[in-house]
Amino acid sequence: MSRPASNGSTAPDPGSSELNPLFARPGEAYDLPKFRFPAGEALPETAYQVVHDEAMLDGNARLNLATFVSTWMDEHADRLYLEAADKNMIDKDEYPRTAEIETRCWTMLADLWHAPDPRHTIGTSTIGSSEACMLGGLALKRRWQKARRAAGRPTDRPNLIMSSAVQVCWEKFCNYFDVEPRYVPISEDHKVLDGHGLEDYVDENTIGVVAIMGVTYTGMYEPVAKIAQALDAIEQRTGLNIPIHVDGASGGMIAPFIQPELEWDFRVDRVASISTSGHKYGLVYPGIGWVVWREQAALPEELIFEVSYLGGQMPTLALNFSRPGAQVLLQYYMFLRLGFDGYRRVQANSRDVARYLADQVAAMGPFDLWNDGSDIPVFAWRLRADHADKWNLYDLSDRLRMKGWLVPAYPMPDDLTDVTVQRIVVRNGLSHDLADAFLEDMRAEVAYLDRLDGPLPHESDRPTAFHH
Ligand SMILES: Cc1ncc(COP(=O)(O)O)c(C=O)c1O
């Protein structure tokens, strides 16, 4: 709010929100502080306008080519969302139909992912893939501990094997739950975890291997069946039976529809559990993930709590307690609305747009594709060494941002930290038309950068790691 300063001029107070002069009715809030509680009430319209105006400054979600998360649903979904905004997922006794729908959803996923007996396995919704991965990881850890205890062996040094390109949720899991992370570095020859050299990482303390269907950095699939074969060979030699958790944050909702022949799911015997984000290619607004186990025995029952204070005796398997129930209903809506064929068409369309964009980016000249968007509809590219004299991918990212497009550039993880890539995530809503508009802007910005007479000055504090 502008206030008269001591010299009579008006100066903005950085600690308050400035209100449009139209807000001048009697009873209207005059001063809404930013960092402490306002002393009194504001009219709802005033508070709404202040929040609305500030949120307006966020980026345009449709031009955000960085995120995997849904930014659009249809108006029926919006209506359902509003109707269900008050439902707490944990109140399963009060909202038994929402609880039933949750069970139907993960059972549908168990079926989609070829669980041997979908109606008699176990799964749950979560707030996103991170929580789902942590539950998958906890089940691996507990199963290993139980087996070790039964064999009279120590249980104090569990380790988990994964690619150096895992999403940060796995680093968190290891940190929060005292598991040693064993990262297998990626390289030009092994761009993803593919089972190569796995025997150097596995030992009797290994609780499992994480395989990612849709690596965050590039969108590439890790070959789950090949990783399983490497583990089979290790088992033959050592007797160690190591299970796999598939992090299908994105690919869990892509592969079944557009690469149905690819065996990455419960068809691979070693896969004990699979997680996905309902809010990525599950096509629901942020706030929903899923995890499903191959069979009930894969989830130690001590991880399930029975609580009585919700009314009735209710099982709960989750890291947090309360969370929105609306997203579960939205997921069910999407499953019913699209069915298998609808999902197939939506995902195939995103894949076609990604492949088209990748071809066009490759044809521009300065770039080498890292991958071409044919796994999940995500691809990355790097700048050719013979084109890196005046500008880099961070400069291009900045130039594109000036046109509203968010296209991140970042270094790859170990052992490729000297490689910088730029990535596009194609989601439902990025049409061929929008893709053409983007390409036009990108070509113009590349031409602008190429016309510079000398190299652009660079800051030294570019990011050294990337997680999304
Ligand atoms: C492979 C992978 N795993 C896990 C996550 C975490 O997902 P969420 O944001 O749903 O917690 C992501 C997010 O991008 C991811 O790409």
TrEMBL record:
InterPro entries linked to this entry: Glutamate_decarboxylase, PyrdxlP-dep_de-COase, PyrdxlP-dep_Trfase, PyrdxlP-dep_Trfase_major
Ranges annotated as biased composition (Polar residues): 1-10
Taxonomic superkingdom: Bacteria
Keyword Lyase: yes
GO molecular function, one term: glutamate decarboxylase activity
Residue numbers spanned by region Disordered: 1-23
E.C. number: 4.1.1.15
One family name in Pfam for this protein: Pyridoxal_deC
Gene Ontology CC annotations of this record: cytosol
PTM-bearing positions, type N6-(pyridoxal phosphate)lysine: 280
GO biological process, one term: L-glutamate catabolic process
Cofactor(s) demanded: pyridoxal 5'-phosphate
PANTHER family noted in UniProt: GLUTAMATE DECARBOXYLASE (PTHR43321:SF3)
Record-stated family: Belongs to the group II decarboxylase family.
Protein name listed in UniProt: Glutamate decarboxylase
Organism whose genome encodes this protein: Actinomyces ruminicola
